[in-house]
Design goal:
The chain is α/β, with parallel strands linked by helices and 295 residues long. It is built from eleven helices and ten strands. The radius of gyration is 20 Å and the shape is globular.
C-alpha cells in the first residue's frame, strides 16, 4: 500500500470503492479491551481509527461488532438523550448509568466518559472526584475533558492518579455561551494558541486530543506536532482518528446536519416507517396476527 504524508492509504478496488483490510485493533487477542497503549500504537503505525458516541448497551455492542475500537459516552447525551438545547445541563449522575450500560454492552472497546460542565473546572481535586466516580461506579476506562492550558493541572492530577485523559480543543461545546455560538475555532493567531494548548495537554499526560470544528490545515499541523493521537470532528482528514455523534452519522438527528457530518444511513426514516406500519396494523386489527399469538 502506498504511503501518503507518512500514513497508509486505504486500498480501493477497480471501481474506486474502499476495500476492507485487517486493522491493528482487529489483531488484538479476543476478549481483551483496547487500551490507551493501543491507540498510541495505531498512531505510531500511521493507522487511522474511528470513534463513535454511544449511550446504551445495544448500540454500543453494534458499534463494537462493526469494528469501532473506541466509544465515547459524550455529554452530547444532553441533546441526543435528554432533550436539552446544549450539553451544559448534563451532570455526572446523568451520565453514570449511560457509561455503565455501554461498558456492559461491550467487551473490547475502550470506553471514554465525558466529564460534564461543572464537574472538573473548579480544581484538580474536583476533577479527580468526578473521574473516580466514572471509573469506580460505571467501569469507564478513560475520561475526556475540555480546555487547554487552563485545565493542565486537572489533567496532571488525573494522570498521576492513574486516570487516562483525552483532551478536547477547538469548538468546546461546554463553552458555547462564551463562544457566542457554534463557530469555527483556531483561525489566524488563535491557531497558534490552540497548538500551544495541544502541546500542553500532551506534556500533562493526555493520551489523545479531540479537535472540533477547526480548519483542516491547523488540525493537520497539530497532528504532526504531537506524538499522541488527534481525533477530528469537523477538522478535516489530516487527524489520526475521526469521531461523530452516532445519531448524526446514522441519520437519526432531525434537521440539517453540520457541514462535517456525513450521513451513512436514514435511521430516522426507517424507524418512522416501522412505527407507522405498526400503528396502522393496530388500528386495522391486523396486529397481532396468528403467528404472533399464544394459545
Amino acid at each position: 500500500m502506498a504511503a501518503v504524508r507518512g500514513r497508509v492509504r486505504a486500498p480501493r478496488d477497480a471501481q474506486g470503492d474502499l476495500m476492507s483490510e485487517q486493522s491493528y485493533f482487529s489483531t488484538l487477542p479476543p476478549g481483551r479491551r483496547v487500551t490507551v497503549r493501543d491507540v498510541a500504537e495505531a498512531k505510531a503505525r500511521g493507522e487511522r481509527w474511528p470513534m463513535l458516541t454511544a449511550y446504551d448497551a445495544l448500540t454500543a455492542g453494534v458499534f463494537e461488532e462493526a469494528g469501532v475500537p473506541v466509544l465515547l459516552v459524550g455529554d452530547s447525551a444532553g441533546t441526543t438523550v435528554f432533550g436539552h438545547a446544549t450539553t451544559v445541563p448534563v451532570t455526572v449522575d446523568d451520565l453514570l448509568p449511560l457509561v455503565a450500560a455501554v461498558v456492559r454492552g461491550t467487551s473490547r472497546a475502550l470506553v471514554v466518559a465525558d466529564l460534564p460542565f461543572g464537574s472538573y473546572q473548579a480544581s484538580p481535586a474536583q476533577a479527580l472526584g468526578s473521574a473516580a466516580r466514572f471509573l469506580k461506579e460505571a467501569g469507564a476506562h478513560a475520561v475526556k475533558l475540555e480546555g487547554g492550558r487552563r485545565v493542565v493541572a486537572q489533567v496532571e492530577a488525573l494522570v498521576e492518579s492513574g486516570v487516562p485523559v483525552m483532551g478536547h480543543l477547538g469548538l468546546t461545546p461546554q463553552s458555547v455561551n462564551a463562544f457566542g455560538g457554534y463557530r469555527v475555532q483556531g483561525r489566524g493567531e488563535a491557531g497558534d494558541r490552540l497548538l500551544e494548548d495541544a502541546l500542553a495537554l500532551e506534556a500533562a499526560g493526555a493520551f489523545a486530543v479531540v479537535l472540533e470544528v477547526v480548519p483542516a490545515e491547523l488540525a493537520e499541523r497539530v497532528t504532526k506536532s504531537l506524538t499522541i493521537p488527534t481525533v477530528g470532528i469537523g477538522a478535516g482528514a489530516g487527524t489520526d482518528a475521526q469521531v461523530l455523534v452516532w445519531q448524526d452519522m446514522a441519520g437519526l438527528t432531525p434537521g440539517r446536519p453540520p457541514k462535517f457530518v456525513k450521513r451513512y444511513a436514514d435511521v430516522r426514516g426507517v424507524l418512522t416507517d416501522a412505527a407507522r406500519r405498526f400503528a396502522d396494523d393496530v388500528l386495522a386489527g391486523a396486529y397481532p396476527p396468528e403467528e404472533n399469538t399464544y394459545h
